[in-house]
Amino acid sequence: MTLLEQWRGSAYNENMTQEQYNQFWNHYFVIEKGFYESLLADNEVVTGTIPQLAEKYGIDKMVMVGILDGINDSLKQPNPIETMDETTELSLDYDKEKLYYNMVGAKAEWLYTLPQWDALLTPERRKELYKEQKSSTTIVKDKKIGRNDPCPCGSGKKYKYCCGRNK
């Protein structure tokens, strides 16, 4: 079983009660917040194996696997998380705009509102990325065409006598 499978097995364990599930994720989110506070404050690209990264950030190795699972889509070069083991050299070279955008998409307000973002992205750019992410998940329904409305194809006929005709 790969490290990622082990992490997902424990994080999404179907045998947990709702209370255990909530406790697990609340604990994880606190650790995750601390991790991102450190990562965003550090201007250098962080690399290392899972044990090295876990030690650097003072977290459990399996929690580090969970964080890698979460950040991978925001990295400039994704890590091989599906096949990684404890000796795999990993990089946390993240794309700051992509990371912010993905945090908004994950509804991780405790992460995208961190004060460390002030040094990385302007408030205006964060606002733009926030709006971009929110509008990307908004479904816009086209206005229904009435039978007696002009046909949208531009023929000048009523819709019911043109494209709306049952064929």
UniProtKB/TrEMBL annotation:
Question: What is the protein named?
Answer: SEC-C domain-containing protein
* Pfam families linked: SEC-C
Q: By its UniProt entry, which InterPro entries does this protein fall under?
A: SEC_C_motif
Taxonomic lineage: Bacteria, Bacillati, Bacillota, Clostridia, Lachnospirales
Source organism (scientific name): Anthropogastromicrobium aceti
Per its UniProt entry, which superkingdom is the organism in?
Bacteria
